[in-house]
Amino acid sequence: MTHRTYASQADEALRWSTPSPDARAVLAKIAERLRTVRPGSTLEDSRRLALILRYSVDQRPRDLDGAEELELEVCGYAPRITSEISRGEYALILDRAAGRA
């Protein structure tokens, strides 16, 4: 796996790109989960990362290297949580990132 030295450049490139079909699927599944399970509860960044890992592995269960690449891609489209936000509100952000809004 290649480590990103200049994260800001990579993040900027992702902003102008379109998620892969697998990344869109992961974003949509996470958004659905957040929307249907306690949507009014606060979402923390550690939970965001856990959900990304879980659904990335679910998307590519027989390819752990591919799941890791997918996880990194999805992290680029699912913004870090730096202030209080509800699960339902964050689901809307993920829908937009997946091209569903």
Give the helices and strands, then pairings.
Layout (H helix, E strand, L loop, with lengths): L6 H9 L5 H16 L8 H15 L4 H14 L9 H11 L4
Helix pairs in contact: 2-3, 2-4, 2-5, 3-4
Structural write-up:
By secondary structure, the chain is mostly helical. It has one domain (7-97). 64% of the residues lie in helices and 0% in strands. It contains five helices and no strands. Helix 2 (21-36) crosses helix 3 (45-59). It is globular and about 35 Å long. The model is unreliable at 1-6 (pLDDT under 50).
Uncertain regions: pLDDT < 50 for 5+ in a row?
A: 1-6
For the sheet with most strands, the description reads: none
Compute the gyration radius: what is it? 13 Å
The helical percent reads: 55-70%
The structural domain count equals 1
**Fraction of residues in β-strands:** under 5%
| Outline | globular
Number of E-state strands: 0
Structural class: mainly alpha
Distance between the termini: 32 Å
Number of helices: 5
> Topology as H/E string?
HHHHH
Mean pLDDT: 87
Tag the structure with descriptive keywords.
mainly alpha; 0% strand; globular; single chain; 101 residues; 64% helix; disordered N terminus
In brief, what are we looking at here?
With 101 residues, the protein is mainly α. The chain has five helices and no strands.
